[in-house]
Design a protein that fits this description.
α3 crosses α4 and α10 packs antiparallel against α11. The longest helix has about 50 residues. With about 500 residues, the chain is an alpha+beta fold. It has a 6-stranded antiparallel β-sheet with strand order 2-1-6-5-4-3. Strands 8-10-11-13-12 form a 5-stranded mixed β-sheet. Strands 7-9 form a two-stranded antiparallel ribbon. The structure holds adenosine-5'-diphosphate. Adenosine-5'-diphosphate binds next to α10 and α11.
């Protein structure tokens, strides 16, 4: 039974439209046995060789049309050929002679031409339909691939608001699995107004508005509430869709995740706040110290004046450091951070940096361990800057607690690996990548306690990357941090 169904399925021309399955041979498998059966019927059952004449003509025309529509021009021509062959067999086997023979041959030849024409016309029709269908399927497939891989979420709705197509990015941004067939009003996505945080009304969705008002909507900002309450900033644009007669068939809406852009904007604002604060502090002190200096000079208290000058120098150094960092960030952004590489003894450079820092801030112990001397081609000044940043961070974020251990060794990949370990406040796992981003500082509320811009590690990463090295951190909150970087030997 199943085999019979499979055979019908195989022969069904409609089921195979668009498949470009053309065959010259298949019609033989069916039509030759059929002709034999017909002959058996005529001779054995009807006992009259001429009883199948009319049947044969009608039946074979139907078969030619059928095979042409199932197996293309090839199939149709094969069927026509078998038909003509069968007719000639009939002429031969019935023993026609004389005028009857010639008129039969003449008729059969004319019929042959007609059948070939029929086979080609129907076959061509079938092949044209196939080509058009394949084109349409390809176009649809292309569209689906584009939609699937777009970096934005997309939803296509019909004029009733039912979602007909969507992509994985939509689910990724909204945190909800959205299936075609549900209404856009009830697809589970929670949209809030960005300022008031009020829930967006059902028919306020830009796709619905675009459909209703028959106009495009650009970049409306919303907050998406994910299932666990996390908020994501998105921009939604929508446009009405029309068929070829200009009749509204629904709308398409596009959702773009702008959380990162908003975060960066916030970081920039924070940066301006912190930068102005950081710049103001030394300047205020400078004004104060200059006042004191003026007084002491007036009173000719040279010793005291000298002390104040020392303090002024310190503040100016701080200021210079901040301005240098700002300049470095701007150099990195414009691609103008140029390295001056020279042969350098890395072990000596590290020792120098540590000595300078000890001199500057003698309280905390810095231990340096290394086995062999290490020679590298580096920009000495820039690598010194990275080391200074990592060690001052280690001091800053351990607030004098525990020793700072600096190690230099050659790792398995034959690169020099430098590590700076502290026993301070540590860094949470999810922030360990972000601290190397521009202007990133871990805790806003710590901004006061730990002065800084969040520029140091960003600059360090850039310098190390330009040296074809890597920089990373290993830490957990409260358990100190170890920063590593590598340099090619
Ligand atoms: P800054 O120290 O000026 O804020 P950095 O770019 O040097 O900027 O550091 C970025 C952030 O990384 C710091 O704000 C701090 O939160 C964190 N951080 C850096 N080094 C350490 C460390 N050794 N221990 C704990 N946190 C650190």
């Amino acid at each position: 039974m199943d085999k019979l169904r499979a055979l019908f399925q195989y022969l069904n021309p409609i089921a195979h439209l668009g498949e470009k399955q053309y065959s010259f041979v298949v019609p033989f498998y069916f039509m030759v046995p059929l002709s034999a059966l017909l002959e058996i019927y005529a001779h054995q059952i009807a006992q009259d060789p001429n009883s199948v004449g009319m049947v044969a003509i009608v039946l074979y025309i139907a078969l030619i049309i059928f095979f042409a529509f199932r197996f293309g021009i090839k199939g149709g021509l094969a069927a026509a050929l078998i038909t003509i062959g069968y007719y000639f067999y009939v002429i031969y086997s019935r023993g026609y002679a004389g005028a009857q023979l010639w008129s039969s041959i003449n008729l059969t030849l004319w019929l042959g031409l007609l059948y070939a024409f029929l086979a080609m016309t129907v076959g061509w029709l079938k092949q044209t339909i196939d080509r058009l269908l394949v084109m349409e399927i390809n176009a649809k497939h292309q569209l689906q691939t584009i939609i699937k891989n777009l970096p934005v979420g997309i939803k296509i709705v019909d004029s009733e608001g039912l979602i007909t197509m969507t992509n994985d990015k939509t689910s990724e941004i909204t945190g909800r699995k959205i299936r075609p067939g549900v209404s856009i009003k009830a697809d589970g996505v929670v949209l809030l107004h960005p300022k008031s945080k009020k829930l967006m009304a059902e028919n306020e969705h830009p796709a619905m508005v675009a459909n209703r008002a028959d106009k495009s909507i650009f970049n409306k900002e919303f907050l998406v509430e994910k299932p666990l309450g996390e908020l994501q900033s998105v921009l939604i644009s929508a446009a009405p869709l029309k068929d070829k007669d200009g009749i509204n068939t629904g709308a398409v809406s596009i959702m773009q995740d702008i959380t990162e852009i908003r975060e960066l904007e916030k970081r920039k604002d924070d940066f301006i706040n912190i930068a102005s604060h950081e710049l103001k502090t030394p300047v205020t002190s400078l004004v104060l110290f200059l006042g004191i200096l003026k007084q002491t000079l007036k009173k000719k208290e040279i010793a005291s004046a000298e002390k104040t000058v020392g303090k002024i120098e310190n503040q100016l150094n701080n200021l210079q450091e901040l301005i240098r960092s700002l300049l470095d960030v701007s150099r990195i952004q414009t691609g103008k951070l140029v390295l001056n590489k020279e042969k350098t003894r890395l072990d000596e450079l590290i020792a120098e940096v540590i000595t300078a820092l000890k001199h500057h801030n003698g309280k905390q112990k810095i231990i340096f361990s290394y086995k062999r001397k290490a020679e590298v081609m580096i920009d000495k000044y820039r690598i010194g800057q990275v080391l200074t940043n990592l060690i001052t961070n280690a001091m800053k974020y351990s607030e004098g607690k525990g020793d700072i251990i600096v190690r230099l060794k050659r790792n398995q990949t034959n690169k020099y690996e430098i590590s700076v370990k502290d026993h301070g406040i540590g860094i949470k796992q999810d922030q360990q990548k972000k601290i190397f981003e521009k202007l990133y500082q871990v805790n806003e509320d710590k901004a006061g306690t730990f002065p800084g811009f969040g520029m140091g590690l960003y600059i360090a990463r850039e310098i190390i990357t330009q040296h074809r090295g890597q920089i990373w951190v290993d830490s957990s909150l409260g358990k100190g941090a170890t920063f590593y970087f590598t340099l090619p030997a």
